[in-house]
Amino acid sequence: MSATESRGRGTSRKAEGGEQDGLLRMRELAEATGVSAGTIKHYLREGLLPEPVKTSRNMAYYPRDFVERVKLIKQLQEERFLPLKVIKEVLANGADEQGHERLRALIELEDRVLERALLTQDATGLSETEIEARYGLPAEVLERLERLEVLTPRVQDGTKLYGPDDVKIVEAVDRMRASGYSETLGFTVYDTLIYKRNLERLVHEEVGVMMERLAGEMETNEAADLVERAVEPMRELVTALRAKLLISELKARRAAQRP
């Protein structure tokens, strides 16, 4: 027997006794993850899992770290509602075990912050009738703001309720209209899209930076507390910077008009 044949047989015997070397059969992997073999094979076809250790055309063994990876993929699907294409990109950015742990910490922190925010939003609210009576905005204005997703009321027991942030938006729109920013001068609720579009980009970047810096660096509740404490100072920062930029823009326009 040649040395090459001996090494090949040795490798085959090692794979055949895979479970002793930290390798799992498909059935064992499915049991360990609670995910069906068919779903795991689909993950393999989509490139979400590395290639297994193949011992023959119809036999393969899977490293034990596949267990956590498969569970993570399923979690991202069921709890984050991410498509497999996006999950593949997310996993590629944290391919090793440390990356997966950081990703889990990131998910946990995002969920905790969102859970607290929703508790605040759901704790209080004004009905559509109360909104109309208090602020006097026409029903069609509210409907347009909802279609633009500037307002996102929830329905509870058949009643539409506006949370604290929605109420502040309604109040701001009402005050703007009362100050003269009205349809007679060409201002409409569609102008709120200027703020919505730009703030979406700002918040997307802001949340990304915040979560990346905090996730896994401290205990989840401590990080969520920090995010809550930062909300108001950040709001004041945005307001102050907007005021400065408004003046800078007006100065720039004036300078551009000079001969």
Description:
- With 259 residues, the protein is mainly alpha-helical.
- Helix content is 67%, strand content 8%.
- The chain is built from 11 helices and 6 strands.
- The strands form 2 sheets. It has a 3-stranded antiparallel β-sheet with strand order 1-3-2. Strands 4-6-5 form a 3-stranded antiparallel β-sheet.
- Helix 2 (26-33) crosses helix 4 (66-78) and helix 6 crosses helix 11.
- The longest helix is centred in the last third of the chain and has 38 residues, at 220-257.
- It is elongated, with a radius of gyration of 28 Å.
- The protein starts with a helix and ends with a helix.
- The model is unreliable at 1-20 (pLDDT under 50).
Shape: elongated
- In terms of quaternary structure, the protein is single chain
Distance between the termini: 94 Å
- Main sheet summary: 3 strands, antiparallel
Number of strands: 6
DSSP helix fraction: 55-70%
Number of helices: 11
Strand content: 5-15%
Strand order of the largest sheet: 1-3-2
- Unreliable stretches (pLDDT < 50, length at least 5) are 1-20
Helix-strand makeup class:
mainly alpha
Radius of gyration: 28 Å
Order of helices and strands: HEHHEEHHHEHHEEHHH
Mean pLDDT: 85
Short structural summary:
With 259 residues, this protein is mostly helical.
Q: What attributes characterize this protein structure?
A:
3-stranded antiparallel beta sheet, mainly alpha, 259 residues, single chain, disordered N terminus, 6 strands
